[in-house]
Structure formats: C-alpha cells, structure tokens
Amino acid sequence: MNEFVYFKSNGVFFQVSVLDIRYIEAANKYAKVITPRKTYLITASMCCLEKKLPRNLFCRIHRSYIISLRHASHFDAETVYVNDMTTGLPIGKQYKGVLQERLFVITDDEKDEISVSIDKTDSFYIN
Fold it and tell me: Domain ranges in the chain?
C-alpha cells in the first residue's frame, strides 16, 4: 500500500497521507477530501476514488460519502460518526450492510452468546 496519495487541486499536486484522510464528500463535479489540517477540492468522481483508494482502509457509505475505516469512531443503522464529529454522515440505503461487512464487529444479538475473559497476563480471549 502506498503511504501517500497525490491530489491535484488548482493545477498543483498535493501529497496527502492516506492515514490522514477522514472522509471524502461529493460536491457537484468535485470531491472534497477532508483531513485534520486541510480540505482539498479535487476534480474526481466518487466512483473513481472508490476504485483507487485502498479497500481495506476506505468504505463507500453513501453516494456522496467515502469514509476512512480508521477514523470511523461509531455508527448505527443510519449514521457514521468520524472521529469527534457531532453530526454524522448518512448511510445510504444501498450501502447499509457494506460497512458492517468491512469491519470486525462483535454484537450481543447473535444466537450464540459471546463472552470475553481476561487472564492474569492481561491477554483476552473471545469465546
């Protein structure tokens, strides 16, 4: 995996760490790449970005949003919250199951009970 990606904005190529990208938002014919320090407005389709970004790090959740799985702090059936956002990003109807498939999710609503035990070496086991 490449550590960096270069985005072209106003005729200049900017180096951005893949790990710094929080999410990407569609904006008409452009896309806004949101990082902690700066927002880049680039000419690229969401489809193109979805194909080119590493699949293990990014997930399309809506026709207008691609999120960094690394920065997704929590989610419910309707919304994903990225880091400390107070307003989340919507999950589109066709993307509802995609996020859970891409994350390692442990739930208590499975038929089999899940228990977690901790031994004296501070290691934990999921039974």
Answer: 4-126
